[in-house]
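Severity: low
Component: inverse-folding endpoint
Summary: output formatting inconsistent between runs
Steps to reproduce: submit the following structure tokens with default settings.
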């Protein structure tokens, strides 16, 4: 894939945001992807949706995001952690989401594990941002699917009982949530993300 693509508006964007991408996908690239996030609900939602993406395209998941939010109580961690067997059966029948039993059960499990992280670190944000790569740890822009830091984070999450959080899934999560700025050089959004990261208050352990 090319590092940059020129959209119908004449602006250069990351190659994964192809010129023929629907408007909602371009908006996601321009206004969400790579901007730093500290909100626990958004962090939890994203890592769960990255798990659902496994084997699929992010465009497919993004198109169903509102359905996922409705199905999983807005990704309110405490509410999802209380889901039980009846909720699993309900979700397996929900045509608006990806009806993969293992991924549904993993999301509920991960909500319970997220509560444990909140209790230990004060917030999910404090935990995840403790894995923000140092400059010497950054991978070449848009060329890697994983990194040593994502491998460490993945290993720690799995040790803590999280599911569907392999290194590739975790790296995509880190890219999207702004722990790194992986917009290509020359992309119209890269400078905005850099500015947002420069002024972002990193969550700290309580």
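Observed output (run 2 of 3):
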């Amino acid at each position: 894939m090319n590092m940059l693509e020129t959209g119908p508006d004449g602006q250069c964007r990351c190659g994964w945001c192809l010129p023929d991408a629907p408007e909602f996908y371009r908006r996601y690239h321009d206004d969400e992807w790579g901007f730093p996030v500290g909100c626990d609900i958004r962090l939890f939602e994203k890592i769960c949706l990255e798990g659902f993406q496994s084997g699929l395209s992010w465009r497919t998941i993004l198109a169903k995001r509102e359905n996922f939010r409705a199905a999983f109580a807005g990704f309110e961690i405490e509410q999802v952690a209380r889901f039980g067997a009846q909720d699993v059966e309900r979700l397996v029948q929900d045509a608006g989401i990806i009806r993969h039993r293992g991924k549904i059960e993993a999301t509920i499990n991960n909500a319970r594990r997220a509560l444990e992280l909140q209790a230990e670190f004060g917030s999910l944000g404090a935990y995840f941002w403790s894995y923000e790569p140092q400059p010497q740890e950054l991978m070449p822009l848009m060329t890697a699917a994983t990194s040593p830091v994502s491998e460490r984070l993945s290993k720690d999450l799995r040790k803590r009982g999280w599911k569907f959080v392999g290194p590739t899934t975790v790296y995509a999560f880190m890219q999207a949530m702004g722990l790194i700025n992986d917009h290509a050089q020359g992309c119209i959004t890269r400078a905005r993300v850099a500015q947002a990261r420069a002024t972002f208050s990193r969550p700290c352990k309580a």
